[in-house]
Amino acid sequence: MTIDRRSYLPLIIGLFAVLPYSSLLLSGNMVLKDGVYSDYGSFQLPVREFVSHEFVEGRFPHWIPWLGCGIPLHATQQVGICYPLLTPLLWLVNANMAIKASLFLHVVLCYWGQYRLGRQLKLSVTGASIAALICTQSGFLCTHLAVGHVTLVLAYALVPWLWCSVIQICDTTSPRGACRFAANVAGLLLTGHPQLPYYALLFGGIWAAASLAVGAAKSHRLAVVSAFTTGLMLGIAIAAVQIVPTWELFQENGGQSTRGTAEYASTYALNGLDMYRLLIPSLFGNPMVDIPELMAPDFYHEKVCYLGVITWCLAIIALFSGYSSRWPWGIATLIGLGLVVALGDSTPLFSWLCASVPGLTLFRCPGRCLSMVSILMALLAGRGFDSLTQPNPLLSRRAEIGLAAAFVFLALAVGYMADQAVAEFDAARWIEFAKANLRWEFAASAIATLAAIITCWLLPRFLSRFRPLIVAMIVVMDLGYFNLRCIQFEGDSSVQLTDANVAAIGTQRFIDGDTGFSSQEVRYSRCVAAAVRTRTRMIGTNEGGVLPHGCEEVFAALETNPDVTLRMAACRSVWKKNAPLQTSPNEALPRIWFYPDSLQDYLDKSIKSLTATNVDHMFTVANEIRVEVVIEESQRIVVQLPPDTSGTLVIADTWYPGWKCRVNEKDSEIRQAFHCFRGVSIDAGTHLVELRYEPKNFFNGLVISVSGIGVLFSISVWRPCRSRGSLPVRA
User: Fold this and answer.
1) Which phi and psi (to 5°) does residue 302 adopt?
2) CATH number belonging to the domain at 592-696, selected among 1.20.81, 2.40.160, 2.60.40, 1.20.920
3) How are beta strands 31-32 and 509-512 bridged, if at all?
4) Which tens digit of pLDDT belongs to each residue from 3-55?
């Protein structure tokens, strides 16, 4: 019996693709290297350590009291607590190993999903394997992994699977196809970051619409629309345990976020000069490999999507290969759309897109749309490889004309973009920068370009058994140098609070004073690990999503009224990572204190409008009434008040729906104090006050999710009669 070499070729190329990521499993206690843009040690790892601890204690980690005066951790999405391919690992191993194991698993899923997607688009086994290799080692995946954007990497790996289900429904509708689509939608929504799921559904929807208009789906439009509608609704229902709390947070924010404007959507967008990084990624520096940035902050990881020169050459060849399939040109159109989105307001089309495409303005960093470009370009490269290795008399002439036309178009487009950005570019400074830092980068780029051109020219002349391995080796060497070397590990160097600092802060709060007290600087504190690991409260976060109204109120007040705000937020300690703990000369109010009836007028004022005299008065009164904290857990506080007191118990923690209160075993309302904190009205007498966080919307979402999973399972196991069975409709 003979073995077809094509049967094991995907495995061999798959090893090329995933083995460079094996350091995720072999690095032991090492963590992804910290840096100015890194979220791994400064947010993802310590917060998931907290999640693991809460599970051990028998609590679902709805609320984290150590950050931002308290935030609803599950609702913020950034940790994806309900994601089934990561959170269960927190029960088995430590958080660091769980995250890295999940990341490696998703690298494998990325390769496998992209390979399946290529095969569904009729790529050869070899072409689909090459496409999967490029996708798995793309600049988007490598750079976001390098900076610890865990949720983005998880979502990126699932996008090819979503598109597999989209194409399957367009080709052949069936209940199981709708279930696969639903499962993929739910998985993407549960990863924890909504931006990539939004782009994936947007681009997948455009593909489906085109198929309904002129493609395979036009002969059974009603069935396709029904399958997509059912699958989308079912997927959203399964993910309701995440979506419903997130929607509540978005509403409670009260519009304080700047999301929803074209200016916000263009934050950290690419400019015309950044387009050159598609060919030379380190053109303006790369802090991940210790090449300084030309213009800091540059946000390298948000702007680089290096796929290798050979990928672009193969993609252009695919467009002029002479095949009858129209999907390569459809993919090229989507790639163009992705580049327009990534360029933000550098192009006049972006404002039109923001006005025309619902939801586009909800996300900043539009360069993340390059994730879609990476997957689509890899598919075109796989088709280009097939074109070069399969007999096609039209290929030579068309490819020559196509390559020439494409390069002219790209030159004009990039030249136009560069002209738009040249006013902000110091050419003389860049030349000196290039001389000092980019010698090896230019050499590597020149070698990669030369290898790509020679390979595309000579590939049809090589023996067929060697062609895929030659291309795979060139891709691995090129992407390995420019992309994979960005992934580095080190010992956990997260800044830590000493025992003396923890004791000095006590039951109050501290604030990171290295960068100042502006809302943006406090929002992106680098001290999250120090706070979470020592269970010490801080005002700052490292949470880039939507925050509760109370958090936003405190952050905004820090800019205009910092001294009063810090005192009101029970913060007297300012911690600079490279200096001793500093304390303010003005005493802060306690975090939990009693507010007598004589001061009720203050409660309805914003902390931005309070004066130092007001705070001095409150401080004097607060110290006259003793409040005993009996129990203090992450989601439960029990307070004993002295007899014959009437007024308001103030807890300087973020007010948020879901917190319930009982006074002497009777339900009591929690009101907003100072527009941001919690307050409980107390009548005269001895009182035991208990506050619990019991988010009703989480439990509502959980019921919907369980119901959705039940429906999905029922449809999946249903065996219809043969006469009612789904029939393939594609010719």
Assistant:
1) -90, -5
2) 2.60.40
3) unpaired
4) 445 578 899 999 999 999 999 999 999 999 998 889 999 999 999 999 999 99
